[in-house]
Amino acid sequence: MLSLKNISKHYKAGNLKTSILNNIDLDVDAGEFVSIMGPSGSGKSTLLNIIGMLDEPSEGYQYFLNEPIHQLKEKQRQALYKQNIGFVFQAYHLIDELNVYENIETPLLYHDIKGAERKALVADMLDRFQIVGKKDLFPSQLSGGQQQLVGIARALIVSPKLLLADEPTGNLNSKQGDEIMELFRKLNKEEGMTIIQVTHSEKNAGYGTRIINLLDGRIESSKNI
Ligand code: ADP
Ligand code: ADP
């Protein structure tokens, strides 16, 4: 599904160079459910953003679905992203001017899906995440947990080949969090969805098939579970 070769990321401010990721080599096969763990500041979000083509590495080669990402133009990267990736952002990134219904519907507008089918898909998500009653509200009218659920619904509505999720249960209560992890496990096992999540939770990581530990921008360990 994807391959990172010798990926590094650094920021320069004057003469000062800060390394965030160092020589990352990573292959993820279709059907894996990977959890990225590690201390705060170890580079987890940066790595996830690079995998999702939302951030560019400073060095290295990157392939997604056999496409050499490092050689593509921004427009081609965006098209590849929209067709194949669902992203659950740590800070939700919902569109403030759109209501819950419209936020969830947005990714469908990049796909050739007719109005009636769009309605059915959104209704299914509202139902699945028990937010039917919130559909006319705007993000500012929702709790953090509710916004997180909307963000997950939006990421899943296109049945992406690759789901990337940055602390997807960080603002949910433990029951909701467990339900989301059960859902991810089911999507992975039954529908073959490839999933990569960033998590601090050993328990959440236990739902997946592989745990990668980052330390100081390097992969310290990677083991199947
Ligand atoms: P994690 O997700 O493991 O907490 P991050 O990938 O968010 O780690 O960040 C890793 C390090 O990179 C942090 O020290 C953070 O301050 C730094 N960092 C992230 N984005 C930038 C940026 N745009 N400019 C400079 N430093 C950054
Ligand atoms: P407009 O106001 O643009 O003329 P409508 O009010 O008929 O159009 O809605 C157009 C589409 O907006 C609907 O088909 C649906 O996809 C979407 N929509 C937006 N918000 C909601 C909502 N809260 N409940 C149901 N559908 C909504």
What descriptors fit this protein?
225 residues, alpha/beta, 6-stranded mixed beta sheet, 4-stranded antiparallel beta sheet, 7 helices, 10 strands, 33% helix, 29% strand, globular, binds adenosine-5'-diphosphate
Give structural notes.
With 225 residues, the chain is α/β, with parallel strands linked by helices. Helices cover 33% and strands 29% of the residues. It contains 7 helices and 10 strands. The strands form 2 sheets. It has a 6-stranded mixed β-sheet with strand order 6-7-8-3-9-10, with helices on both faces. The two termini are 19 Å apart. The protein binds adenosine-5'-diphosphate (ADP) (2 copies). One adenosine-5'-diphosphate (ADP) binds at residues 11, 18, 20, 38, 40-46. This is ABC transporter ATP-binding protein. One of its GO terms (molecular function) is ATP binding. Pfam families: ABC_tran. InterPro entries: AAA+_ATPase, ABC_transporter-like_ATP-bd, ABC_transporter-like_CS, MacB-like_ATP-bd, P-loop_NTPase. Belongs to the ABC transporter superfamily.
